[in-house]
Amino acid sequence: GVWTIQKIVTPEFEIRLVKIDANGQISRQIGGYEASLLAVDANDGSLWLSLANEDHVVRLNPAGVETVRVPDLGNPYAIAVDPRDSSLWLADGHSRRIIKLNHHGEQLATKHTPGFFSDSPQQIAINPSDGSLWHGGGANHSRHRRVGIASNYCAGYIRQQENQQLGIPRAVAARFDERLQRLCGYGTYNGLLGHI
Question: What pTM was estimated for this model as a whole?
């Protein structure tokens, strides 16, 4: 199954951990944790959570019982479990460091990523075959261009951040199919709020 963080808009603004089975049905729910990140230990099904607005990570066993709580970890931007030894890696963006904890929450390693905010580790991934850690989000100190894609979505009734009509010559946009023209802002949303 797949675990996800479900934010429910209620007067109390409830956050639940929800497990969805292979048939798309909710098979499990756990409340009481304001999690912002989660990672599953493939070895035993335990969950590691980064708690929103706190500097803690917690580990829940497969029954949903908290077995480990580790404070003073800054503000994790990403967490990942190494399937080889059940250790947790986390990217602390505020302190610009990567931290490795064993499955008991004891700190095994820390790697600082010096520089300004742009050098902060933003995402991490573990190669399960050799345990190597990849992180992204640092500054480009090479002499080569770094190519990247920033993908986002803007609701149809909200003006996009970049004015595509200025960035794409009209002669080029005229050759786009109708759907692509509409995605670039050439049209209206539900008959209202057109920008062209």
Answer: 0.66
